[in-house]
Design a protein that fits this description.
The structure is a homotetramer. The first copy, chain A, has about 350 residues and is of the alpha+beta class. The first copy, chain A, has eight helices and 18 strands. Chain A has one domain: Chorismate synthase AroC (Chorismate synthase, AroC fold). In chain A, about 30% of the residues lie in helices and about 20% in strands. In chain A, the strands form six sheets. Chain A has a five-stranded antiparallel beta sheet with strand order 1-2-3-7-4, covered by helices on one side. In chain A, helix 1 crosses helix 8. The longest helix of chain A has 27 residues. The radius of gyration of chain A is 21 Å and the shape is globular. At the A-B interface, strand 1, helix 2, helix 6, strand 11 and helix 7 of A face strand 1, helix 2, helix 6, strand 11 and helix 7 of B.
Chain lengths: ~350, ~350, ~350, ~350
């Protein structure tokens, strides 16, 4: 198991869907950052189920407690342990899951790997695991904003075939939070919400794309050859549940251009270098170039559908399974704070690494 | 700088385009594997420039030497140092590069990060850096084949708009190596070669997609929550020069399906579990499920074009640059062994990690 | 800050003397190990203050809770979070510490490093920090015993000038636990207890030596050249508060012998190799050789004395300080479970690492 | 195998006694440090055999080559590969070693761990392995001196029962290099040399103590709770061949004092804090306090003696072995540059880590 992320700003997450709770230990946070639960709770509120009619109705208040690492409202430079108690434990709602593997879930692979699994609520494979990431990411985001002037945000760019209009350089957080689907394009947002509601009524699910953005990153962050900034972003995103793809800047679409068309010309003005286009997505050779970083993450439709499906049981007999209980028709609105958290975690780690070698 | 990849089977690469050479130290290789230069050289031959009319004409034989870690033709369990001397050093061919940043290259970002750069041939940012990866990957691939029965391969799936027909479960290495573009679909291959030649004559470049495949991976490899198998693959691929995107299984296309359509039903036969479709790409919850692993990597068109482009010089003055010398119109044929190498490195590391915790 | 120890079996500890508590996240524990709080609590009871008249009277029950990582009494292979709530928080007892640096404590260096410190109770520099280590070590110790047949124990070998007779190959846990100073030589133990009591009455403190032992370690554990088994043990021991030295096998005394006298001759019997002496301390070339591993750790006298001492305040003015409140005249009895825990953590990590590369 | 040391300034060493050579890759070195072979060679000359009549007569010039990582005499921030070719390869001199395990050497444990070993010259277990450490350490030492004003040195403090007079705060490099035993006390040095020569004539060996010193380390370096500065020093020293013990400051002797006697009182002068004694050895709570860091390392007598000894062969039959060929009666003079190198590597890594979190 690998539950630690980052080199200098490191998070270690823990916790299952059922049990004593979920949480995170943040190690390496610089000292003397003002930090209370109030800095973290809003991000958890954006992540939690039950926040709107289009996401999972699981009832958890997800109240965070700082168990260590601060003193008189400031970080000490020691590990910060954040804890969110589990509340809505209804193992009985999952009893069939004890014996049957949900298709396209991790039930079977966990059983194959470990020979044991916490079946209630999916245990560690539940999206609840991301509570720790979002909590840790909230600290990273605050540091980035206050000490480096870097702004991180994400939004829903596409739900199935509905594509939002959004300019990574311009999108504002207020526009993202203006609707429950977290899409800054109000027209697309309305269509997305309708599609998700229709999908939920059908007991089915839809996927889509979240776009992540970082503005104000100075030139120089990123550690070639293996810990290129985009490589660490890709890993961070593909470590999120249900993600299936990552592309930065021009991405897969960029392959339709030639080199002449694709290259971003450099220009200088007032002693500063910039590029007149940004197909590179703000990163060249694995290192930030000072332009806006933007990338897209594909999330498959949630695997839990309210319909009968073929599967096998734990004795490897063929059977069928029909999910009961909570139904999350579209993970995207809740994936937005997850993408932001992971982006912030990657960036702050690289900020510190750059400072260490070249500071 | 971060030049080490892997946790238990680790490679550390080193070397610039010009200077004493390029190489790799492989640490953690199990002992008693038969290994000589003959196991590594063929992979380097597939990676090196000058191997065909459609790739860079740089003349290097790229002859590998094992400096340590073997005895009487077998690995010792100690670090294996592999060295490839540099031969074709013509710094004068690059003299303009000393003063001007090539657009969409890493010249500017290295200068911004380090305040110094080895401009001849691009230094560490040259694709020559991947020699060490391919050499280390050759050892990983041999181990996977001999000790785990796992087969890794990659091929060119798309060049600009030309898409090959290829079934990840069926493609054979012989079909891939049957043509200079390394595309197993002969008709598409012929069209791709024509396109690349035409592009070269125009002094321009094209990009495309390499598909990577791993067959025979048993259920259980992968380390959630952060080192999911697909997360480590994504990082590995995005650490390759010129890569802009990664998708696994259904990838970005999968978002057009609903959950019902996307899920892979489980079935059992003869005490073994399998899925009747494979949109998951062989990985569920970050852990291999025993099906074929397949993914795609987008490579942008090579940035070095033989045409004049806007750029700035090291004094941040606006200027233009027209590349001289060698011209690599399409990186894809040479990217194939790179993708294979990185895939093998990820898989062998996960094989050992799984063995450590659950073996 | 570096609060993670180990590569494959990893602990991350957190918590200050005052605040929400102290704890540990154990990552990499193999699945399906029977584990409840009852496996951990006894070790914490041996570590906690207030257990006898010769240690610190701080009143804490140190009750451990498993927050994650187990299901139905077995480990899941997922991270195990253990939490011990803080109880005896009396910040007022420490108010002078807010303004003055205790001599030979970490108050000054934490302030110098972080520009902030949690002064009540010493914050993270309190020996309370070792709760997480001992809790994590209890799991490691159980794994070593049940899966590898390895027995780890430690005992007080020396208090100031009083040296115990003890044979590392023979000492039994019962003899160690038979008295409050945790010395298996009853005569020496009685003298040690008298010395410690006398020292306490004088408001002073004494140090000494803890000997650590591991029996049943098979040949082959240890990872040269840097993670030699003795190197990792040395680091583990020197990471304990108040430790000033480490020696293995013949240690510092061995330098008085010549090579002829010092070498351990090999002999074979029944297809097994052994040595007829064990000045190597069970490790040769950084790798266990199958003999008993034994080493000694020097602990300085506790820095908190009940007498007036010269020091400076946070404004760098000269002043004096006289500690108030709890007085721990000798850390050694409580250091015994700490040494055992760290030994077990080093060994289980190396067991898994060996299994990964050579298994 | 674990052949990488350090977190931010990392060395990866490689190479066997026989084969293509030995070397090191240094990753994380800050850019723009002036560096040529001339900065490294002198340290290798101090480490190599054959430099005086009292050390191993193996004939190697140990000429270092920089293969990568510099440009026009300056570091690039990219990995620096240093290579020293093997020259004096006389495998026949070791042929008996192919079949017999040398007592108190690593022959048996390597065979037990890996099932294979490079027996000529001891392969990776040869002291020749430390070439890479000393080469990498030379760069670390230069950085410490030029960028941080920190001076690192070591010297022979004791050979068997002969103890040198030396004040860690005062010893000068010139005094250390003034004699072939590298002991700054001329009277003791003369006696040591006589003892070593007598021992060599007897075909035997002697051990002793090297004292390591770092002056000018600012307050704040060290990463509790696990990577305390003394913990990393202890690991570094115990990773050196033949080392058996480590103690810092008052060390094992400090246990004879009471807390009152042992504590280092703080005083302030001119806005700076210092201690009036230094039993802490310059480190408190794992963090440097600005005083001189000093510690001692015990090295056992070299295991290779020119006399017949009991041992077993590779078929686990009892036999005897009498070493032939080169005889190194005392490792201490050559251990001095090794201790310096490892000390410098620990310190520079901590300098960068401190800069990252608290810079």
């Amino acid at each position: 198991m690998a539950n630690t992320f980052g080199h200098l700003f490191r998070i270690t997450t823990w916790g299952e869907s059922h049990g004593g709770g979920v949480g995170v230990v943040v190690d390496g946070c610089p000292p003397r950052l003002a930090l209370t639960e109030a800095d973290i709770q809003p991000e958890l509120d954006r992540r939690r189920p039950g926040q709107s009619k289009i996401v999972s109705p699981r009832k958890e208040t997800d109240t965070v407690q700082i168990l260590s690492g601060t003193f008189e409202g400031k970080t000490l430079g020691t590990p910060i342990c954040l804890w969110v108690k589990n509340e809505d434990a209804r193992p009985e709602a999952y009893s069939e899951m004890a014996r049957k593997f949900r298709p396209s879930h991790a039930d079977y692979t966990y059983q194959a790997k470990f020979g044991i699994r916490a079946w209630p609520g999916g245990g560690r494979t539940s999206a609840r695991e991301t509570v720790g990431r979002v909590a840790g990411g909230a600290i990273a985001r605050k540091l980035l904003r206050e000490r480096y002037g870097v702004e991180v945000l994400a939004y829903v760019k596409q739900v199935q075939r509905i594509v939002a209009k959004a300019d990574p350089q311009q999108v504002q957080s207020e526009a993202v939070e203006a609707n429950i689907v977290r899409c800054p394009d109000p027209l697309a947002a309305a269509r997305m919400i309708r599609l998700i509601e229709k999908t939920r009524r059908a007991g089915d699910t839809v996927g889509g794309i979240v776009e992540g953005v970082a503005r104000g990153v100075p030139p120089g962050w990123g550690e070639p050859v293996f810990d290129r900034l985009e490589a660490d972003l890709a890993k961070a995103m593909l470590s999120l549940p249900a993600s299936k793809g990552f592309e930065i800047g021009s991405g897969f679409g960029g392959i339709l251009l030639t080199g002449m068309q694709h290259n971003d010309p450099f220009r200088a003005r007032g002693g500063k270098v910039y590029t007149t286009s940004n197909r590179s997505g703000g990163i060249q050779g694995g290192i930030s170039n000072g332009e806006t970083i933007y990338f897209r993450v594909a999330f498959k439709p949630v695997a839990t559908v309210m319909r009968e499906q073929d599967t096998v049981d734990i004795e490897f007999k063929n059977t069928t399974l029909r999910a009961r209980g909570r139904h999350d028709p579209c993970v995207l609105p809740r994936a937005v704070p997850m993408v932001e958290a992971m982006t912030a975690l990657v960036l702050i780690d690289h900020a510190l690494r750059h400072q260490a070698q070249c500071g």
